[in-house]
Every structure is written in structure tokens, then in C-alpha cells.
Amino acid sequence: MKTVLMTAFEAFGGETINPSWEAVRTFDGKEIAGARIVVRQLPVVFATCGEVLTRALDEIQPDRVLCVGQAGGRADITVERVAINVDDARIPDNNQQQPIDQPIEADGPAAYFSTLPIKAMVAALREVGVPASVSQTAGTFTCNHVMYSLLHWIHTTNSKARGGFIHIPYMPEQAVHHPGVASMATSSVIQALETSLQVILSTENDIRVVGGATH
Q1: For labelling, which of 24, 94, 132, 187 has a CA lying 20 to 30 Å from the CA of 196?
Q2: Model pTM?
Q3: Per CATH, which fold does 2-202 belong to?
């Protein structure tokens, strides 16, 4: 049986909850498309989030990896295309550290592309009525750090695993404190993640459709 590792983050930035964890934790122990789902929570701490992820990867040796994080202000599910080799924190992490222009891996490449079928995932999400798009930036906070660390692990260990990252909007419970900012119900996020897992486990080659942006 294949194994999928799903990760999500603890709350940060003054929030009391993180929508990624509220959704992802519901998958722990489930079987989807013939695969067993294992869930891990990651700290919003630059110094340790990559290490916690790498330990889980070494332990579990998953076939697929789907990391999930909060992107407050985004209006839809955004499937990330690329992770870049830099930490440049707009706000301090949960350990009150704020790295600026620091490489994640000193000898690593400038960027890694997701190895998931990102456009097929977006198409499937839209098909079930969940707003979704390809994102060209995972930011420069701990979400990007984790995505880069994941892909670096896959590359440097010659793992046959495939992995990537999804950003999700605020939950409505958070958005009430951010007037005018979009949100998405946890039930819709859970549906989106389950659909994404189905695609990840059944699609070898991504579809060739427009997913770019003009800015």
C-alpha cells in the first residue's frame, strides 16, 4: 500500500488557529485511492520546520507528500509551482526569529519545481466547484521553506516520492477579524484536499493547459 505524508502548520502571526491544520488533521489514518495517509504538524519556526519535516520523511519514506499552509488574503486554493532558496521573513516566526535574505540550503539550487501534477489538481478542484489556481510563488516565509526542504530531500536522497505544496485561505472564523478578506469553509478545504489526493495518486503526467500569470 502506498503512503502519503500530509503536513500542516501550527497557528502563527497572532491567529489562534491555522486552517491548514484544522483541515489536514482530519485525514490522519484514512485510506484514499488505496493509499494510507499519515499526518504531521510542523512548527512555524525557520530553524526547525525543515528538520521536523525531514525527520518525518526519513521515518515514513512516503510515496507522495502534500504540504499545506495558510495564505491569509488569497481567495482560492493555490497549488504552488515553485519553491525558492531564500528565507526573507516579513514577520517574526513563532520563535521570534526574522531571517532576511538567508539561503535555506547554502549549496542548494536557486529553486525547485513541484513534482506533483499541479495543473491536473487545479482542473479537478474546479470540476468539483472549488475555486483554485496555480500559484507562481509560495512566498518567503516558512511555507516556502518547507516546500523547498521537501523538494531538496527528494532530490538529494534520490527518492521516488513526488511532492509539493498547497496554500489555502483563512477560515471564516479568522476572516471576521480581517474585514474584506476572503475565506473558505473548512468543509470546502477538506473536499479540495481529498480531491487533490485522488489526482496525486492517479496521475503520472500533468495536463498541458494554461496556468501562468501576467504579473
Answers
A1: 94
A2: 0.97
A3: Aminopeptidase (3.40.630)
